[in-house]
Amino acid sequence: MELRSILKKCMLDFFLIQAGITFAIGVIECIGTSTSGAAQYIFFMPFVYAFFCVIPSIVVYSSKELSIKQMLVRKTIHFVLIELIVMLISYKTGVLASTFMRIAIPLSAAAVYIMVNVLEYLFCKLEADTMTKKIQCVREKDDKR
Predict the structure, then answer these.
(1) CB-CB contact of 32 with 120 (8 Å)
(2) DSSP secondary-structure letter at 93?
(3) Where are the beta strands (DSSP E) in 66-134?
(4) How many angstroms separate the most distant Cα atoms in the chain?
(5) What does 6-66 look like in DSSP terms, one character per residue?
(6) pTM for the full predicted model
(7) How far apart are CA 140 and CA 93, in angstroms?
(8) What is the pLDDT of residue 46?
């Protein structure tokens, strides 16, 4: 995998994570108790969470093709690291004050993680299908010659 594609994947992960976190924060605020008078930094929290959650992506990087078992192990480690990062940031910012938030935040992180991985799979599948069609067109042209 070349550096350009790695950076592209990390940027895609960053924006998907940030969008998912922003949505999760909105849902949690609607369901949970309102934090009226919240500090201004709260609006930057999706960016902070997304930035730090992209860093563990190094765990799933490999220059060679991985087996399904190897990828599952790496994805599990990746998920655990992301959960730890989310909980650490939440603890440091004082968000984990209530029991509801101590349950809602890890569940939200898991939901965002699943969403990001499903969307990534769909994007990769779309790209693979497009390449397959291009290869089939080239083969058909060669067969006609």
Answers:
(1) no
(2) T
(3) none
(4) 73
(5) HHHHHHHHHHHHHHHHHHHHHHHHHHS---TT--GGGGGHHHHHHHHHHGGGGGG--SSPP
(6) 0.70
(7) 60
(8) 80
